Amino acid sequence: MKAARKLSPLHRYAAYPYVVWAAAFVVAPLLFVLYYAFTDRSGSVSLTNFSRMFNGDTLKVFAISLAFAFIATLICLFIAYPLAYAIVKTKKKTQNMLIMMFMLPMWMNFVLRTYALSFLLEDKGLLNRFFDTVGVGHVRLIYTSGAVIFGMVYNFLPYMLLPIYSVMAKMDKSLIEASEDLGCNKFRTLINVIFPLSLPGVVSGITMVFVPSVSTFYISQQLGPTDFVLIGDVIESEIKTTGGVYNYGSAISFVLMLLIFACIAVMNKFSDEESEGGVIV
Amino acid sequence: MGNVLLRLEDVSVRFDSEQILNRINLEIQDKEFVTLLGPSGCGKTTSLRIIGGFVTPDTGFVYFNGVKMNDIPPYKRPVNTIFQKYALFPHLNVYENVAFGLRVRKKPEKEIKQTVKEMLALVNLSSFERRDVSSLSGGQQQRVAIARALAVRPKVLLLDEPLGALDLKLRKDMQVELKNIQQQMEITFIYVTHDQEEALSMSDTVVVMDNGNIQQIGTPLDIYNEPKNAFVADFIGESNILDAVMKEDYKVVFAGHTFRCLDRGFGAGETVDAVIRPEDLEVVPPEDGMLSGTVTSVTFKGVHFEIIVDIRGFKWMIQTTDYYLVGQRIGLNIGPDDIHIMKKSEYSGKFGDYSTYSDEITELSENAEEEE
Fold it and tell me: How many structural domains does chain A have?
């Protein structure tokens, strides 16, 4: 019986490709990032990259990137949550179709989608032409901070919708009935039962939107003001334009990773505490 | 007891093309223990959900204390439900689950604390306040669900097969406990089950349902002793149901013999169904019996033997504490008060003959269904 508990050799061999993959494409690059981050261009260990970061404008860029990602994530949450709630209320067939409609854009290339957005928002773009016709007049849309946020929300909304929807769809309907039975109307049921039970979906949705938002660079370049940079842009230009000197870019990446890690840790802590509360409304 | 608390009037429900309830009329008294009994798909759970407010009837009315309730949402109804799978909130501990309805009603913290303690004591879970509901056994979760529903002091408690998931021993204990709680709290219980024994032992009134119709309403004794049709006779306990002809008042003919009985008011020569319970048949030597036949099977049931006897091609079931051999000839006597005469119904001929003695098989397949 003991032998049966151990993985058979076949099972172990089956895992090898992944081990090799992880070593080559996950662990090794991380080690390289670490190495470059803590060395200068001559290869000797130093903290110059970090002192440069903390003295220059990079800190401000960090702050802006976090703020933008935070706002985009929040907007995604406020759109996706009621949306998921509404979708779950429909018939199963309609649900599948609606989810499909929100997933469909994800099948299109990310760059293409963002590019298409800029056409839409341009000064002579579709939206402005529409505004002209209805007499609203010209509105500056593209190359604004708002456009960057819009781009993030547009691109990452499905990642918020899907986990929240799947948690809600799997929720035991009798819990909702029990809540109504005990005196909660629809809104109180939402606050007291559905929301706390859907928190795991909310947490993973936030993670899945926040992480790509905070590190994105293409969206800000395509839709943001000319001198506007997010931390992703800084890393990209550091890696691309310094002709093989990766040290500073690696250091920023490393700090960004730590920041993301910290944000997720804080959020998970918060959601754990949240789920132990009583009735709110 | 005495005044009508709850009334269903001409209630019908269809789901898609299926008629779930067919013009149901039902009155429930205050402080009564009413059981809706029937096989799965008979409409009992739908009836309960209509009272709870989770299903809106297509036609008909629901009255509570004479006030129409059709359009009142569940959260405003003075009824609470014990759900089949308890439906405890997994994100709250035992205390908070029981306190849920009180918090929604914005009761002061002191009162909440007192009520929760009282309710948990009522269901014998006093030391479980801080426990996570997922760490409780099925029986304990059941008790928390009861405490949670009773904490808000409903006028009526609706119980949807609440003991279905518990094992036999625990179920028996909970039956007694539920009955005690009902009497202690002095409220109306409406209890849904497919278990006839549960229905008989707990209820003041049993409502037997099949196929979206109420077949019979009565006390457990009435239902058992005076079933209205072959369905009720068969569903509640074991029954031998025979085609019979009323000769005149107090005289009925079946199995080639004329019996004295206590029933009257049928037309002379009217065909009827005669019910004889297996435990009422008296086994005598073949030459002394009103009827005689051959034993075809004997099953030991613990307290008694279940014997199948072939009399003129009809297989009778007898419950007796004496042992007989397969193949042995025995006689049967039936007293006048052991015969119950019923009018012919759509169920006549469908039940009450043990020639295809398939109870055990039916039971097995029923159990298999429940486990799914």
Answer: 1
* H helix or E strand, kind and range, residue B29: strand B18-29
CA proximity to A142, closest of A68, A222, A223, A218: A223
- Residue A213 lies inside a defined structural domain of this protein: yes
The two structure tokens encoding residue B303: 């307290």
Calpha distance B128→B133 (Å, rounded): 9
Q: What is the CATH number of the domain that holds A197?
A: 1.10.3720.10
Chain B residue with minimum CA distance to A198:
B91
> Residue A180: CB partners within 8 Å, gap ≥ 6?
A186, A189, B53, B54, B73, B74, B75
Q: Which residues of B touch A179 (CB under 8 A)?
A: 89, 100
Best probe of the A interface among B15, B49, B100, B113, by most A CBs < 10 A, is: B100
Instruction: Match 């909970």 to its residue by tokens.
Output: B174
- Residues of chain B positioned with their CB less than 8 A from the CB of A170: none
**0.90 cut: is pTM over it?**
no
Determine the Cα–Cα distance for residues A185 and A191; give it in Å rounded to an integer.
Answer: 10
Q: Is B209 helix (H, G, I), strand (E, B) or coil?
A: strand
Alpha helices in B37-157 (DSSP H): 44-52, 94-104, 109-122, 138-151
> Among B74, B87, B105, whose Cβ lies nearest the Cβ of A174?
B87
Domain that holds residue A206: 63-244+256-280
Write the pLDDT tens digit of every residue in B38-89: 998 899 999 999 999 999 999 999 999 989 999 999 999 999 999 988 899 9
Contacts of A196 in chain B (CB under 8 A): 91
Interface test with A, best of B82, B92, B148, B153 (most A CBs within 10 A): B92
Q: How many CB atoms lie within 10 A of CB B257?
A: 14
Contacts of B81 in chain A (CB under 8 A): 177-178, 181
Nearest CA in chain B to A172: B87
Q: Over the stretch A243-271, which tens digit does the pLDDT of each residue have? A: 888 888 999 999 999 988 998 888 888 77
Whether A125 maps to a domain, the answer reads yes
